[in-house]
Amino acid sequence: MSAKQPVVGILMGSSSDWDVMKNAVDMLTLFEIPHEARVVSAHRMPDDMFDYAESAHGRGIRAIIAGAGGAAHLPGMLAAKTIVPVFGVPVPSKYLRGEDSLYSIVQMPKGVPVATFAIGEAGAANAALHVIANIAMTDAALAEKLKAFRVKQYEHAVGMTLG
Ligand code: RP5
């Protein structure tokens, strides 16, 4: 967790989601965005989930990245209880490899959105990058960092060799 007041919350349904959700944490750390990460299980800790959602806005949380696997209720239920934007990350599951997680998160009924990302590590990293891009719209220094990040990716790709 960052020492500064967190503006982004990263929640996950289990410590078994950490290997995936760590990718969001690493990205926020790279861009020096104050954040907090917690396990809050929708079906095992429903009251804690509601407490988190209800207090998030008042505590200064401006985005929630929520990852879960299987019947992944966490992002949608958080979104139901807060106006803070929720970014959902489908975590790969044992039997359906995360297709269940994806459909559980992405198919929110009209009126309560969850912005849903790819299954797994890419989704977690991209959820963080999307949050960072949103913050960068009103933070010139962060926008420059994000541009530099893209340049680095370009340089990596353009330098690729075959064989
Ligand atoms: C979900 O169930 C979690 O998000 C996790 O992806 C999945 C399995 O949880 P554990 O049995 O590993 O704790 O709630």
TrEMBL record:
Substrate binds at S14, D17, R44. Pathway: Purine metabolism; IMP biosynthesis via de novo pathway; 5-amino-1-(5-phospho-D-ribosyl)imidazole-4-carboxylate from 5-amino-1-(5-phospho-D-ribosyl)imidazole (N5-CAIR route): step 2/2. The keyword Cell cycle does not apply. It holds the Pfam family AIRC. GO terms for molecular function: 5-(carboxyamino)imidazole ribonucleotide mutase activity. One of its GO terms (biological process) is 'de novo' IMP biosynthetic process. Keywords: Isomerase, Purine biosynthesis. Its EC number is 5.4.99.18. It catalyses: 5-carboxyamino-1-(5-phospho-D-ribosyl)imidazole + H(+) = 5-amino-1-(5-phospho-D-ribosyl)imidazole-4-carboxylate. Belongs to the AIR carboxylase family. Class I subfamily. Catalyzes the conversion of N5-carboxyaminoimidazole ribonucleotide (N5-CAIR) to 4-carboxy-5-aminoimidazole ribonucleotide (CAIR). This is N5-carboxyaminoimidazole ribonucleotide mutase. The gene is purE.
